[in-house]
Amino acid sequence: MRVKLRLFAMYRETVGKREMEITVAEGATAGGVLEKLIRDYPSLSGLGNATMFALDEEYVAADTVVKDGQQLALLPPVSGG
Amino acid sequence: MFEVTDKDIAAGELADVVRSDSDGAVVTFSGVVRSFSKGKRVLYLEYEAYKEMAEKTMAQIGADIKERWGIERVAIRHRVGHLRIGETAVVIAVASPHRREAFEACQYAIDHIKQVVPIWKKEVWEDGEVWIGREGG
Known about the structure:
Radius of gyration of chain A: 12 Å
Strand content of chain B: 35-45%
Largest interface: A-B, 17 and 29 residues
Mean pLDDT of chain B: 95
Low-confidence stretches of chain A: none
Distance between the termini of chain A: 36 Å
Oligomer: heterodimer
Largest sheet of chain B: 5 strands, antiparallel
Mean pLDDT of chain A: 95
Radius of gyration of chain B: 15 Å
Number of helices of chain B: 3
């Protein structure tokens, strides 16, 4: 399955991209995608517990299954306003 | 109007957007970049947004305000990019026939923007920089 991953703030700076197309297995969850990213970029591990997820611009829980063609955003703790 | 922009923003402009002839009160809030944070002198801020979702969540805050106070004329603009000390990062304008609801709704808006809108602030000091997270700022 192909998923468009959106990266912001610390994620964007560490990975060096605002977005990337990734391939995930059937049944992969938002949290699972994050875990794989942290394995590839261990310096992100501190953010793991505090990261929120959005699928197609809606907040979702970490255990939400990701579907083909969706846009998954990894959202560090927000600090707008 | 719920907008993320990289241009200058100002409370007065947003007040004009929301005011209608039935409104006796227009309340605005400006979130401004300040020079000290946690004892360190800030050189500048960088704001970044998930624009599409930020505008959606800001619109949802507007919908919450309509449901809770019956106020329909709410506008929020958040700026992104490089902001210097004294520049305005966010503006909220709320118009209502009477002031009590407008004040309450405006406070609700900024409190919730800070909690749910996918926008991030990076503080840059002389000796380092950090993306602000749950510790606030």
